[in-house]
Amino acid sequence: MSKILITGSAGFLGSHLTKELLGRGHEVVGVDNLATGRLSNLQDVMEHPNFRFIAYDVSDKSVIDLDGVQAVDEIYHLASPASPKLYQAASLETIYVNTIGTQNMLELAKTYNAKVLYASTSEAYGDPEVHPQPEEYRGNVNTWGPRACYDEAKRLGEVFCYEYHRLFQLRTKVVRLFNTYSAGLRNDDGRVISNFVTQALTGEDITVYGDGSQTRSFCYVDDTIRALILMMEMDEATGQIINIGNPTEHSVLDVALLVKQLTNTPSKITFHPLPEDDPKVRRPVIHRATDILGWYPEVSLEDGLKRTIQSYQAKLALI
């Protein structure tokens, strides 16, 4: 049994990962300041004998002295707002958690010789001029715009991981995540699938930004969690950046039409101006994931959407 620290444990990915690792028999310490995470995501495990939750901001340097985080074996640093709506509303906090917070986790790992997996993002590629995006691509990013607080902070977090690996031989691993989804996303999250499904089920207009021709690659949460654990386990992933996402690409309009079909909603699809710096294309090259981790996504978009819709329907029935 390993002692594992998960930052952002009350968030979407963090709560799924917490439950999976507890189910595998590990001791899990969750740290979250609850700025965007919700304790309700962890209600099923709050009384679990191997789980401890600490409400704290990992951007505060004193986090490394907290009772409970000593002698950890692994650190999954997932803490950060992830949707444009949420990170733009907390821009400075987003910068801090991905830079100062990342360094704090690396210092903690250095103290206890722990492994660290840092959750970066496909946003590191910006609005890409290379398609699809391999890990070697350095991106087309804007440091002076509304998405920069997230994109650039994540990129600097990667640099921290690189330097701690280079200078101290710390076992750091960086994953660039591409559009993970499931019903666990907040229905006010503002991202494509949570927006479309919520709007369809409530009969509201389904809002498509731009003409809907921009593309995304959507990865169901079960596939992403499996990849994160594989990456932490494998020594070959140390010192690596690895894309994790579904290499099957869909236009945003096609996703809207599929949601409309699967929900049998009377909602109309409406079109709105494309936000500034919104990427036109996004699809991962996943050769490293397949070669190093032996990982490939298993859940199709249609199957994942069906699961997501069923869960959202159950939630809405309780409101």
Automatic annotation (TrEMBL):
Which cofactors are required for activity?
NAD(+)
List each copy of the NAD-dependent epimerase/dehydratase domain by range.
4-245
**Subcellular localization(s) per the UniProt record:** Golgi apparatus membrane; Golgi apparatus, Golgi stack membrane
* One Gene Ontology term from the biological process aspect of the record: D-xylose metabolic process
Name any one Pfam family assigned in the record.
Epimerase
Q: Please give the chief subcellular localization of this protein.
A: Golgi
Q: Would you name any one GO CC term?
A: cytoplasm
Is RNA-binding set as a keyword in this record? no
Q: Which UniProt keywords apply?
A: Decarboxylase, Glycoprotein, Golgi apparatus, Lyase, Membrane, NAD, Signal-anchor, Transmembrane, Transmembrane helix
Q: Establish whether keyword Membrane is in the entry.
A: yes
- In the record, what terms sit under GO molecular function? NAD+ binding; UDP-glucuronate decarboxylase activity
At the top level of its lineage, which domain of life is listed? Bacteria
Q: How is it placed in the membrane, per its record?
A: Single-pass type II membrane protein
Which InterPro entries does the record match to this protein? Epimerase_deHydtase, NAD(P)-bd_dom_sf, UXS-like
Q: Which PANTHER family match?
A: UDP-GLUCURONIC ACID DECARBOXYLASE 1, UDP-GLUCURONIC ACID DECARBOXYLASE-RELATED
Q: What is this protein called?
A: SDR family oxidoreductase
Q: Which organism is it from?
A: Paenibacillus roseopurpureus
